Amino acid sequence: MFLIAELKSTVKVHPSQFNKSLADVSKYELNKKLANKVLHNVGLCISFREIVSFHDSCILPADGSSHTDVIFRYIVFRPEIGSLLTGKIKNCTRDGVFVTLGFFDDIFIPKDELQHPSRFEETEQAWVWEYPIDEGQAKHDLFMDVGETVKFRVIDEEFVESEPTGPPENNEASTSKQSTTANDTNFRPPYRIIGAINESGLGLESWWTQNDDNAGNDDEEEEEEDV
Q1: pTM for the full model?
Q2: With contact defined as beta carbons under 8 Å apart, do 195 and 109 qualify?
């Protein structure tokens, strides 16, 4: 889930910080620059790990600050495809289920990757697994409510490069654009994880806990009958 990436960046040190060690200043500046930011095809930066090496420093004309290329290691969040994660349901839409890990919110489980058969309840704004309880037509509705703990498998990841947007042509366009952006369902985060729960043992933890409890009760009844 967490990886160590080796990266390179230029650290600028103001003359007022020349009395401090380059390593301490570099750690502070790199954390300020990268912490909680997504690097394309790398992942979500979490925390500075260590310095690998410094290149020669230089001072640019009319600047006064020193500039040093630094090779360093940084802890990043980027779970492997196929790995299992546990989060909480953030919200549901007709397209699927959004999950949060607390420090990372851009996790999406498409409707086709839910347990089958499932339906979307408009009034509850929640997905429901229609769990068959026998070989007939009887089914038990298992709701995926907001805040519930869910276990899922990572099946894909998406990195999107941010693109600059030009200034609006007039005030009317600006107002329209702000309104569109606020309600834009097509917004794509710079890094998104795609998950699935369409296999045994995945989905809400409460689903399988109930099954284990029921199985345990059945075993106890069988033992009593044997006695």
Answers
A1: 0.79
A2: yes
SS3 assignment for the chain: CEEEEEEEEEEEECHHHCCCCHHHHHHHHHHHHHCCCEECCCEEEEEEEEEEEEEEEEECCCCCCEEEEEEEEEEEECCCCCCEEEEEEEEEECCEEEEECCCCCCEEEEHHHCCCCEEEECCCCEEEEEEECCCCCCEEEEEECCCCEEEEEEEEEEECCCCCCCCCCCHHHHHHHHHHHHCCCCCCCCEEEEEECCCCCCEEHHHHHHHHHHHHHHHHHHHHHHC
Among residues 6, 49, 15, which one has the least CA distance to residue 31? 49
Q: What is the pLDDT of residues 173-226, one digit of tens each?
A: 444 444 333 344 567 899 999 999 999 999 998 888 755 555 444 444 445 445
Q: Which residue has the higher pLDDT, 202 or 164?
A: 202
pLDDT at 175: 46
Separation of first and last alpha carbons in the chain? 49
Tell which phi-psi region holds residue 79, choosing left (phi > 0), alpha (psi between -120 and 50) or beta.
beta
8 Å CB contact between 103 and 178:
no
Strand pairing class (203-204; 38-39): unpaired
More confident residue, 122 or 218: 122
pLDDT at 212: 53
pLDDT at 215: 47
Q: Structure tokens of 100?
A: 């949060």
